[in-house]
Amino acid sequence: MSAARTTGAVPEVTRAQALAYRVVAQQLDRPGGDVADLSVLDLGVQDSPPGSAAASLAARTAAGSEEAEAATPERLDDARRWVTVWAVRGAPHLLRRRDVRPMALATWPADADDAAARLAGYGQGVRKRSGDALAALRSAAEAMAAVVGERMAKGDASGAVTRHGPDDLAEYCRSCGTVHISDQLMRLAALPAGLAVDQSTTPLTLRPIPNWDGVPEAQAGASHLVRAYLRLHGPATPKEVAAYLQTTQAAVKAAWPDADELAEVSVDGRTAWVPADRLDALRDAPEPEVVRLLPRSDPWLMGRDRELLVPEAAHRKALWPVLGFPGAVLVDGEVAGTWRTRASGKRLDVTVSCFRPLTKPETAAIEDEAARIAALRGHAEATVSTTDA
Fold first, then answer.
1. Would you place residue 167 in the very low, low, confident or very high pLDDT band (cuts 50, 70, 90)?
2. Which of 106, 212, 221, 287 is least enclosed by beta carbons within 10 angstroms?
3. In sequence order, what are the beta bridge partners of 351?
4. Of all helices (H) and strands (E), which one includes residue 161?
């Protein structure tokens, strides 16, 4: 369906309302309940670098609670409940076990143009060679399913797929000086091939997911991902959803919910949408009173409207540099700075670069959050120091 305007007056929403809504929608207000019920898991929680997903879940659970204990790295290794796969954009995501097959179906490209967009540089190369990116992805997925019959290191899997698959799947790699399947193609083929990722090993390994139903025949359920994005990151636009999924706006609009399922709003003059049943929650979201240390791949930072999340260009540059993203210090719905860590024996040193002066209560709350991060990483204590960004 097209992202058409709804009839009648369009409600106006401020940036502050949008951010306040997202705090609740992404459960950064720590409402309690089973960790597996956290709404951010509907899109998966990115786990890069490894351990980030646990930190993201910890940011949404109360310290010392049963759900906090269930979100520890040790508990998240339970393959009966959790699986890590290369999902959206080829990035590692922690998923509920029951959501793995639906994610494979929903992220399977709708057509060759969709596949080329998701495959980024490799997809554009296929297009230039007048090839079919969707056919290439299917060939790669079938090859991976055939060769990875047991736990296998990524490099070994890459070599095996290169030998097994069609010749046109491989490209020359400057960094390693050999010809092998492209990294992005391998990443996007792994999930439809039914392969999970284990980032706790060195090198990273792939393993078959039991009872896999084979490479998808066609896309199914993409609209569920669109709705989840609009619910968690709304108000949002088709362009932002497409950027998140790394696909075309045409592919997103084809999966766009019907007009009666959405509410159109104006966010400081920008037209965007939320699910219709979330409009009241958007209008009436309480003023946030939270302090959180978010890892660099936290769902909060995955929204594609970065100018709304962080209005100051200099602050965006600090939060999203070309290399080496830091984490974000979230204070009452606003990113108030960045944070980085350095391990020092049993201690974790946390350095906060502030976008504005912090109050004593805010600093104390940051110290509490830093202690949780330290515990998750196996450190006995944490120290916090602050600098100006």
1. low
2. 287
3. 340, 385
4. helix 154-164
